[in-house]
Each structure stands twice: as structure tokens, then as C-alpha cells.
Design brief:
With about 180 residues, the chain is of the alpha+beta class. Helix content is about 45%, strand content about 10%. Helix 1 runs antiparallel to helix 4 and helix 2 crosses helix 4.
Length: about 180
Amino acid sequence: MDEALSELRRVAELAPHDPGNHVALANALSAGKDAEGPGGAFTAANDAGRGVKLIRNIERLGPTDYGEALAKRSVLWDTTRKFFDRFDLLLTPTLPVPPFAVGRGAPEGIPVPTGALLSFPEWLPFTYPWNLTGQPAATVPCGFTREGLPVGLQIVGRRFADATVLRAAAAFERARPWTDKRPPS
């Protein structure tokens, strides 16, 4: 375990850690997606207004932005690949903050920078990188806050190792059953 933590710290130091880079990357790579369909940045059920705003913001990105985003994704992928050459799985919290009210764009107290295309880099740093690198990931409940709200454990695997991630998630759920527990109403 100590070896894995040491390696994770080393890799994290090598990885680009500017959330703005990842946001620009996510925006540029999702520019061609339908904002109201599967795989788009937002769904109509979530908030069509944010989807329209996202599309309008993305329109200002040009071919150079897209090329730079692809280059940054390659760097992120290479860093990730090096980590997974040594380890089968990466375990992280799903979120660095407790759950927040439905309908909020971000947790209370987390500022969303003016002009930001997306609001998630400050409160969703553990999940979106895997969408960019194509890593399989699963989230399983692993406990509750003092207020009784659920906390998630994210299990990330090597590229194309979906079965390994699903087996690990199932094993964790067998070891820590949760289906009989519910957050407060």
C-alpha cells in the first residue's frame, strides 16, 4: 500500500494539475456532441439552459484550441498509462465534498469562476479525467457523512479492463453491503 501511495504521489507530480487545462480539453473534445443527447455535456432533463450556454461558449473555440486539447489529453493519457503499468486499480473518493442539494450547479462555498465553460473542476477532480483518457471507473457507496449522506468510493482501472473494475466493485459491495441503508429524508 505504501508503495502504491508513493507511486501515486510521484505520478500526480508529473501530471498537469491545472484544472483549466482539463476544462479546456473537455470543452474542446465535447464540442461536436449533442448537448441534449447521450454523451453530451448536459441532458435536457438536467438543465437545457446550461447546455445551450455550454454550446455557445464552445463556439468560440477554434481548431488551434482543439489541437491543443488533443495534445494535453495525450500527456494526461501517457501519465495515466505509466501509473497503470504498475498498478491494476486506483481507488479515490468519488467527490472531495459531501453531497449537495439537487438542482445546484456546484456545492455551496465552491466558487464558479466568471466565464467558466463548466463548473465542475473545483469539486469533481477525481472523476472527469477518466472520461478523457478512456479509463473504466465505477463508484460504489462506501459510507456516510456525520449527517447521514452517502460517500462514494471510485474504482478506476486500466484502459479496457472494465471487467476488473466491475469485479472489484462487486467484491467491495459484498464486503460492505449498503442496500439496507438510506440517507435521511
